[in-house]
Amino acid sequence: MLKNYLYCTLFILLLNFPHLCWAITPIDTDPAIETYQLENGLTVYLQPRPKAGLELRLIVHSGSLQENEKQLGLAHFVEHMAFKGTKNFPDKSSFKSLEEHGIHLGSHINAATSFNSTVYRLSLPTSTDQQVEKGLMVLSDWAYHISFESKDYESERDVIIEEWRLRQGVAYRINTILDELRYHGSLYADRAPIGSLDIIKNAPVEEAKTFYSNWYQPQRMSLVVVGNFDTKVAKQWIAKFFGQRPRGNAPVDVPQLRAFASQSEPLVKIILDREQGQRIIQLALQRNLPTTLNTPQGIKEDVFDLVWLTLLNQRLSLLVENQILPNSQVNQQGILFDDKRMQYLIFAQPKDQQYLDAIKHLFTELQRMSTNRVSEIELQQIKTQILTKLKQQLENESNYQNDYLANQLVNNITNSLPIQNKQQQLTQTEKILKKVNTEQLQTMVAERLNSADLRIAIIGPDSDEEAINISQIKQLWQSIRQTQLGDFSFKKVDVKLDIVPLEQGKIKTTRNISEIKAYEWQLSNGLRVIARPDNTLSSDVEILLQIPGGLSLDTYQQLGIMRWSQRLAEASGYGSYSAAKLNQFERQHQVSVYPYAELLYHGLRGKAPNDQLASLFKLFYLKLTAANFDPERLAKTKQKLGLAYEKKPVERQFLDLINKNAFNHGERLLVSPKGPWINFTVDQLKQYYSQTFNLPLSANIIISGRFNIDDIKPLVERWFAGLPVVDRKTTWIDNGITPIHHSMQKAYPMASSDKSMVSILYSEQKSWQLSDQLKLELLDYIVNLRLRHYVREQASGVYTIIFSQQLIKYPTSYYLARLNFTTAPDKVNALTLLADKVIQSVAHDGITLDELEQAKKSWLLDHQEKVTSSTYWLTAMAQIAADGDRFDELKTQPNIIEAITLEDTNHLAKQLLGKNPKIFTLLPKENNSLNQ
């Protein structure tokens, strides 16, 4: 149990900062969460709630930091072995037992090893007593009874190596150096959870067993249960399964495990890579916490951090708005390494190669906040912003999904954070904020800046080698730290969209779409709106404007013009509002609206909380009617994206080569560094945007989310019903983009790391039918399970292998499947043959009835989760609205799934699977010289 009282005993600190003392103040914990401890020391957290499903988490408070020098990587290895077999579920039968209920690896079953903990996750979409028992039994076996069969241990070595290999590439190269910088001076730097490849390859199974025995002990574990369950029944199963093991005698963690050596000057890393097309500055301030955050002082420190980081973020946003920095932001909450070490992260992008100038602005604003008081107006703005956000979260708390709450509990437990509901957080934060004044703020920022370790990373393309050096950055920091600065000169003014529609219209007719509990409105201007209110959905209100056309409208002489016209409008702003002002408006109101372009459709997409609907509709209208096109912005965008195209990562180049070679007219799917975009003019883009957003009668507006239908109607009439509409129906163009229906094999020796990527495309001509598409979705589950069994588990050749397939309906119907995996270069040919053999065996021999029934259960469970999202309904309704209005299909899909027969499924598999394989392989360069 968490301690209820803290006596303020830090005498010296309190002499300097008496405002930190809360005399004997209790910490309220969420009354909906019951916490108790078994006799063996295992702590249990129960959060029963009416929302369907059950989330189980086993937290082992041991991770890679608990490894000794002979065990580097074995904490993670033990996690892998949990899925290979246990006492009550030998030979992976825990998977099979759960998969019988439609529960499968990845989406429902998973685990993760970090520095300080290992967390096992089970998500049960339904929570019968039988499933609760089974789930808890599986978790207890992972806690106490992993088998460590020698054969399984040996085969899993290669799987873990492939997990390491999967990460290789430009992101891994950059992140490896960032980790060296982030964890310098601590054991963290030598304890990456993936570990040492030499140890993974050679460590005996006894060493892994030793780690398991030493560190998987009940007093080092917590169990989290969230969802719809009977508390009394759950407690009985918990006592039976988790109370069996007595308290252990695990070695005690020593403080030095998490200690960081002090540093006398900033640490700086310059990270330049030939596949890095963006320039980024990352500035980190790290400090040791005076107390954990689940104490009265810790809670107050946490709220204070929220205040100063939010205020700093606002100031940096004003620098962006005034074109001093291209982009900059602050993580508005610190990042915990553990309960003793906090990191504050600040990001910025420089103008071209002007890294030092951008860094100067970051240093300056940090120094200014530590030496100058902020204005009362600024502070009040931040307080209001923080409380508004908390109030919105409180309003939506009952709609949180079980998995979100379970993951929040895990985070709070592992980082020693308060376990509170949103009302408690709001009440507590209001109380603290009332006492925060400008003098305290300046003092506390100064204290943080004086005690924190500064770590700076410069990330950019290899062509920037001469642009900056480490000594310049260190000298600049020392100089600015000696500077007395004036007050911040820019003032935040809340952005108000002072716009009125040129015309307003009416809803002429209403049709009740009873199949999906939605409404169709025909507006007086000819537009059609489909709205589906549902207060049980899990996300914001979403709006989609869907116009037929999309990228298909681009001519060959102007490939890319659709996206470039949208990109320039976003960069130039709308009406009298700059892009920076509109970004500020979006942050103020937690609203987003942006243009999109797909192959056959384009338009606008937006979302907002249901208390910001007026802001959402107003911004939607503005972006539809008042796009700007700035020549200077076009030049800067070309320069920025030109660098990104030139430095495109190899993996992206590989995807482009696949699209170019596997499809007829595949060049329409690429962006060429030397493409037509180089010559686009402002007038061209302005004309094209105006043309493509000139609303036709064939456009649809879809609205989905938690809202009251009577609140939406007047907004639709005010902002949408008066829009100018062209009295014609437009459509997309068939440019003949179809797979090449014959076999091919191509290899590209261009990878910059020691890995091979394989992508196999299968295709065939096939007319579209909903029942066939659903059969293919069932086959996806079955084929992926077989691939996992044969390619990952038996051959130990990959970490992940993914197969997906679909029937394309428009503009030309066909079947397309993709199979992707990454592996070692010396295994690539054998595993490619094996993976294709699995596909061909399904086509030739079919599937079993047991496999089909299990796939149906998985599909139904996944569908049950999908329909809780407003995004699902938005996308599904848009597809149906653009294609015949057969909304009943959305309701009848589960019935169609249930009626699918084994004979029909195997007939379709024989007809389509494995046809016309197109095998593409990315290989390492010969004599490859990797970036250092």
What does this molecule look like?
The protein folds into four domains: 31-252, Metalloenzyme, LuxS/M16 peptidase-like (Cytochrome Bc1 Complex, Chain A, domain 1), CATH 3.30.830; 262-481, Metalloenzyme, LuxS/M16 peptidase-like (Cytochrome Bc1 Complex, Chain A, domain 1), CATH 3.30.830.10; 507-719, 2-Layer Sandwich (Cytochrome Bc1 Complex, Chain A, domain 1), CATH 3.30.830.10; 744-924, Cytochrome Bc1 Complex, Chain A, domain 1 (2-Layer Sandwich). Helix 25 packs across helix 29 (902-912). A hairpin with a 4-residue loop joins strand 14 and strand 15 (528-533). With 932 residues, the protein is an alpha+beta fold. The strands form four sheets. A seven-stranded mixed beta sheet has the order 13-14-15-19-16-18-17, with helices on both faces. Strands 1-2-6-3-5-4 form a six-stranded mixed beta sheet, sandwiched between helices. Strands 7, 8, 9, 10, 11 and 12 form a six-stranded mixed beta sheet that branches. Mean pLDDT is 92; it is low at 1-24 and 927-932.
Can you give the helix content as a percent range?
A: 40-55%
The shape, in one word, is globular
The profile of the biggest β sheet is: 7 strands, mixed
| CATH top level assignment of the largest domain | Alpha Beta
Distance between the termini: 48 Å
Detail the poorly predicted runs. 1-24, 927-932
The CATH architecture of the largest domain can be named as: 2-Layer Sandwich
Give the strand content.
15-25%
Radius of gyration: 29 Å
**Number of helical runs?**
29
Mean pLDDT: 92
Across the major sheet, the strand order is 13-14-15-19-16-18-17
